[in-house]
Amino acid sequence: MQDYFLEVQGLKKYFAAGKPSLFQRVAEQVHAVDGVDLQLKRGEVVAMVGESGCGKSTLALTLMGLEEPTAGKITFESRDITHSNEHDRKLMRQKIQMVFQDPYESLNPTQTIEQIVGEPLDVHGLAHTKAEREVRVIKALEDAGLKPASTYLPRYPHQLSGGQRQRVVIAGALVLEPHLLIADEPVSMLDVSIRAEILNLLADLRQTRQISIILITHDLGTCGYFADRIAVMYLGRIVEIGPTHDVLTNPQHPYTKALLSVIPVPNPRLRRQRLILQGETPNPIHLPSGCRFHPRCPVAFEECRVVDPAYVEIGREHRAACLLLRK
Questions:
Q1: Is the separation of the CB atoms in 260 and 248 below 8 Å?
Q2: Cβ-Cβ contacts under 8 Å for 6 (sequence gap 6 or more)
Q3: What number of other Cβ atoms are within 10 A of residue 60's Cβ?
Q4: pTM of the model
Q5: What letters, b where the CB count within 10 A reaches 16 and e where it falls short, cover 243-264?
Q6: How confident is the model at residue 326 (pLDDT cuts 50, 70, 90)?
Q7: Which residues, in sequence order, are CB contacts of 196 under 8 Å at separation 6+?
């Protein structure tokens, strides 16, 4: 048995920006995901963090097969799913499901909760009788924390609260009994009082169903509560990855340090000095030479402008891509 059941190697996803012209024969490209390596163990939670536009959601869509990779390789349960055909992709989606950010947009307002949660079973032909379908729908709803499920079956999304809608979205993913759940900002649209409930639900599902989870978020506080490992993304790449405790208590990359420095801390004695990054994130079409973080890095030196750093090993699994670590 392999240590990892999901392996991502050198994954890239570029989008065309405009069309070729008389003066530019090749169309410019947005480097949304630009060489990501990631491994995931069964039952593990990995949090992908970074500011808006760093490529987190594009990475999720590419892993789901909703975007075709430009380059790289995705191996899931010992099978190469990088360029799967429609039949294989459909089988793969029984095992990999996604929870989208906005429960208000991801639910069909004209369908009942029973129809929404049962639709994946219809698509994949997994319920042979109406009774079997109803049993699986009820189990998924109750596992998602909607009890008693029978009272929710005839309702419509507009009759539920935001937290209940997100539980319905989770139930729609659970009904197929997946092995991997990709949660894209699953609590960002919810009230603060509801967020802990949804995170506790995901933590319970991880234990009871042995589901692996890729949590996409911009909230490092959430990661500390929920994730086993944290991967920090910047401009399409993972710049630091490691066990949650190591990344939060001993960050290696200047970008990670800047993100952590602005997290509110109740105890004033534990507060870090704020590191406010100067300037804007570089254009993902015209990436800077050398290290892509050097235009905003507070400790950049001349070599950073010309050398694109590779990962540097820090301990067993704590890695950061930064030339400073070689000194």
A1: yes
A2: 38, 39, 40, 63, 74, 75, 76, 77, 180, 212
A3: 22
A4: 0.89
A5: bbebbbeebbbbbbbbbbbeee
A6: low
A7: none
